[in-house]
Amino acid sequence: MAYINGIGKTKFGILNKSLAQIMYEAMMKAFDDSGLGISDIGAIFISNFLGGPCENQLHLNAVLASLMPGAFKPIVRIETACASGGSAIWQALLATNKFDNVMVIGAEKLSSLSTEGTTTAIAMAGDRQVDQSAGLIFPANYALMAQQHMRKYKTTHYDLELVALKAHENAKLNPLAHFFEKEITIDEIRRSPVVASPLTVYDCSPLTDGASAVIISKNRYEHSVEVIASALVTDTISLTQRDSLTSFPAAKIAARKAFDEANIAPEVVDVIELHDCFTIAELIGMEDIGICKPGESKEWIQEGKTTRYGDLPINPSGGLKGCGHPIGATGVSQVYEITAQLRGEAGKNQVVPSPEIGLTHNIGGVGGTAVITILRK
Amino acid sequence: MAYINGIGKTKFGILNKSLAQIMYEAMMKAFDDSGLGISDIGAIFISNFLGGPCENQLHLNAVLASLMPGAFKPIVRIETACASGGSAIWQALLATNKFDNVMVIGAEKLSSLSTEGTTTAIAMAGDRQVDQSAGLIFPANYALMAQQHMRKYKTTHYDLELVALKAHENAKLNPLAHFFEKEITIDEIRRSPVVASPLTVYDCSPLTDGASAVIISKNRYEHSVEVIASALVTDTISLTQRDSLTSFPAAKIAARKAFDEANIAPEVVDVIELHDCFTIAELIGMEDIGICKPGESKEWIQEGKTTRYGDLPINPSGGLKGCGHPIGATGVSQVYEITAQLRGEAGKNQVVPSPEIGLTHNIGGVGGTAVITILRK
To answer: Which of A58, A97, A231 faces B94 most closely, judged by CB atoms?
Structure first.
């Protein structure tokens, strides 16, 4: 289908740099990794959610062009809330029909806003008439889902704590993670204050700045990883229009389409980067992808099946919870991390034995957008 | 390459409707026009610039999905400032490799903001560090270009008045134009107050709401118009980084690429929809496209060559000046208008003899983005 032929990523964290700076940094790292330069790139797809409120800056394609005057490339910006990165990759893959090499750069600079300002800005991913006016911000949305998951499947907060603990155990080793070298114990997680019951601080991904870039090529190069499927599916923006609060139909359908496109079964996946914007999202994501049955994700977590040494490592990078969730960068960063895993270059976060097939799961809002990408060594 | 197989457009003006409503209305009109339905559409590309400040609503792909629950389509949003519409069409064309039929919906709802709020919001299309901090908003940017064009080529404000008069003469006949049935005389234009010298009120396109949709298909149908070229080029975001103030390099390069791709010369174009966000932009656009030499556009205007009855009608719809400039909708609306012209269905705005080849010219900011699309009957 197409090949990931270069990856780059800034440190994720609170960065004293502008959107333009981190886009450029991630881009240059991907060039260094690939051996390609700007003249080899046919088009660039930028993924960003909140350039407007965070920097009063839209038209980011021209901002990027300003950093390479005279290049005159086709560059566009894609926005689908927290799934912007996956969506930009989906679009870039379509573009490999026309161009030999294309680039995706995801970037977000959340720390420019106050915490309250960020919450208000992120609420724009939810329906303005129903959800925003009712104060149904994202921690509240995911709390409703957690309540229903607990009620229906006897999931407990302890299961969520195990998800958070795993994320931090992995992020601790990842030099680019927001929470690199941060030691977190299950007791600290258990004692953390409630955000929206039953979710506590450690159930929520942090506000983070960062950028990621990948180069996607029509042809295979030396270090390439193959993209064998990419599926993007949209659904209603608000939970109030859904039949179930324990699953995202868009993610289930995207996963099924992606597995069909790749012509593989969920069982053969070796490693997953999953959109754990909240811990409950990891349990729901596992069930939506179809690696376990509805309600069984908690047992997988309890049995340690998804740790770095388990049968199916999930978020060995630290995920959104441990690496941070610079919104527009997240979906691109997931592909970065899976590519590193499939190349065997994930350092202390490397999954062993060396994985052959990896999957990324990127969600916008409360499942209004879902993008599943499958990669093969 | 691909075919325009359905078009739809709302009234352009101050509308008492939401972004969701006008997106839906334009979409349904395009379905009615094409005979296709949502089940025939493989993917949808939304073009919108200011959903954030105008409606506190991003994640518009999920907003649209909410209007057709159960459809689970791939939908994304594209933003490249005022060139968002052209950019979405450029992307949709890439997608016809994968999907038989795709849709582009451009929409903007500017009237939700105060005039001052809109000016601030639109300024996000300009560089935040250089232009925004200096107060270099878009009328000021284009005024600088007009001053230089006047100095270099002896263009006068009378030439700009003729551009405005032509726009209103055409818009007066177009039922979907913001200024439908509005009579404007050259005296009124001449007496209008200065906005940014030398530009006056009648040199500026108005703040307008509206939506447009087109369906693009891999195969030719009965009423299809062929897309024979589409070129998207980016440049520096700020005029302060440019060598010249009388031309947009991105537009010149995009036009050259498009003519190369279509394998035609500028001389064979029969009708143009040109991004006249300000009257001076029409003169510069004519020169950038290459239909006349630098500095000669004023003579074309003086000789009436670009009126509806001239050698090469430009903006027979009324353009941005006469129809309004609902930013995300504009580039899509241009393709709507050219398609209507090539089909011979442009009503009182129809160019005669029936045109064979049409071109759209869509600009973001002050030439940070340029998209040229060429269509053939």
So the answer is: A97
Residue B95 in contact with residue A230, Cβ under 8 Å?
A: no
CB A52 within 8 A of CB B124: yes
Measure in Å the smallest separation between the Cα of A67 and chain B Cα atoms.
Answer: 8
How many angstroms separate the CA atoms of B242 and B46, rounded? Answer: 31
**Taking CB atoms and an 8 Å cut-off, how many pairs form between chains A and B?**
201
Rounded Cα distance between B131 and A12, Å, is 29
For residue B82, what is the nearest residue in chain A, using CA coordinates? A59
For an interface test with A, the pick among B61, B120, B277 (most A C-beta atoms closer than 10 Å) comes out as B61
Q: Could you say which of B54, B82, B277, B292 is catalytic?
A: B82
**Chain A contact set for B69 (CB, 8 A):** 235-236, 241
Is pTM beyond 0.90? Reply is yes
B38 touches chain A (CB under 8 A): no
What is the Rg, in whole angstroms, of the alpha carbon atoms belonging to chain A?
Answer: 19
Which residues are B230's β-sheet partners?
B373
Per-residue pLDDT in tens (0 to 9) along chain A, 377 residues: 899 999 999 999 999 999 999 999 999 999 999 999 999 999 999 999 999 999 999 999 999 999 999 999 999 999 999 999 999 999 999 999 999 999 999 999 999 998 889 989 999 999 999 999 999 999 999 999 999 999 999 999 999 999 999 999 999 999 999 999 999 999 999 999 999 999 999 999 999 999 999 999 999 988 899 999 999 999 999 999 999 999 999 999 999 999 999 999 999 999 999 999 999 999 999 999 999 999 999 999 999 999 999 999 999 999 999 999 999 999 999 999 999 999 999 999 999 999 999 999 999 999 999 999 999 99
Find out whether A90 and B74 touch, Cβ atoms under 8 Å.
yes
Interface check for B234 against chain A (CB to CB < 8 A): the answer is: yes
Count of CB atoms within 10 A of residue B17's CB?
17
ipTM associated with this complex = 0.98
Asked if B19 has any chain A CB less than 8 Å from its own CB, the reply is no
